[in-house]
Amino acid sequence: MESRNGPRLLLFTILSLCSVAGSQAVSHSLTYFYLHSLNIPGLPYISMVGMLDDLQIYYYDSTLQAVEAKQQWIMDGFSAQDWKNQKGILDMIKKLLSHNLTPFTSMFSIDFIQALLGCTQSANTFKTFLKIGCQDLGELSCDFTTGKCIATGVLALLNSYLQQVNIADIPEIYMMNSTCIQCLQKGLQLGREELERQVAPEVQVMKKRPTATAGKSLSCIITPFYPRAINATWLKNGRVISEDYKVTMLPNYNDTYWMELVIELQDNDVNIYTCHVEHSSLPETLMARGGVGEPRGAAPLLGLMAALAMMTKVV
């Protein structure tokens, strides 16, 4: 399904990848990513992206009148009451971001607030959570299962109040808790075929030209792949390099992912570097030794187009 909000959706997807790139999923999740834009030109006042595991399923911003489905089976499978519940979750977060944190945003000239709301299922265990990050002010983390919240940074001023409140007893929180879990279970049932698909990546290693800020480097491009969980790293003389390289992950337009690992060369022998990739779709590990060449086929261009879309239409 196409949407005029594709570039904005891409922005949230990138935010969603920051904390999980390289991990192997052991549970299912329904996660909502929010951005409350206060002084950022070109971005709506409130934006939201919903993710079911690695798949984008919802989009909303303050220029719309309703939550948009990003998958046809979501649109067909959810009832009017389901959509009303989704809107209720959104309204609760909007109220929290817009009203409760206004004193902080005014006092400290905050440009944006990010929020992460969701629930996870592992076996028969469910967890619902909320995290709010305020620019330069710290983070507020809530576990709705236990009813406890804790804040860091300047927001730690709220901790004495938070210790006296069981947020699980707040009616809106109770509604959000049950609604999220119900939507997660229903979404997993409706989208099972799509969520369980496997797309195997190709790997290409190329030299990168020196720039004003970086010397010679190697780029390992991995695409297309699904699911998002992937284990990719650089080896030097057969040994894993645990740091000193940059990792970027982007969504492709066709619900697969694109990944690049860039390492700055400490010597001129590119043959001692190897890009090592493990993915659930692969029967064996992919290994690409440091070399020169153009990407094979059109696959690496998918992520490039996604990156260009973001740079030209979002930033």
Description:
The chain has 315 residues and is α+β, with helices and mostly antiparallel strands. It is built from eight helices and 16 strands. It has helices at 6-17, 72-77, 80-100, 102-107, 159-162, 171-190, 192-195, 299-313; strands at 28-37, 46-52, 55-61, 68-69, 112-122, 125-134, 138-143, 148-151, 202-208, 217-225, 231-236, 239-241, 245-251, 257-264, 273-278, 286-289. An eight-stranded antiparallel sheet has the order 4-3-2-1-5-6-7-8, with helices on both faces. A hairpin with a 2-residue loop joins strand 11 and strand 12 (239-241). Helix 1 (6-17) packs across helix 8 (299-313). It starts with 5 loop residues before the first helix and ends with a helix. The model is unreliable at 1-25 and 293-315 (pLDDT under 50).
Which key features would you list for this structure?
16 strands, globular, four-stranded antiparallel sheet, alpha+beta, single chain, 8 helices, about 325 residues, disordered N terminus
Secondary structure layout:
Layout: H1 6-17, E1 28-37, E2 46-52, E3 55-61, E4 68-69, H2 72-77, H3 80-100, H4 102-107, E5 112-122, E6 125-134, E7 138-143, E8 148-151, H5 159-162, H6 171-190, H7 192-195, E9 202-208, E10 217-225, E11 231-236, E12 239-241, E13 245-251, E14 257-264, E15 273-278, E16 286-289, H8 299-313
Antiparallel strand pairs: 1-2, 1-5, 2-3, 3-4, 5-6, 6-7, 7-8, 9-10, 10-14, 11-12, 11-15, 13-14, 15-16
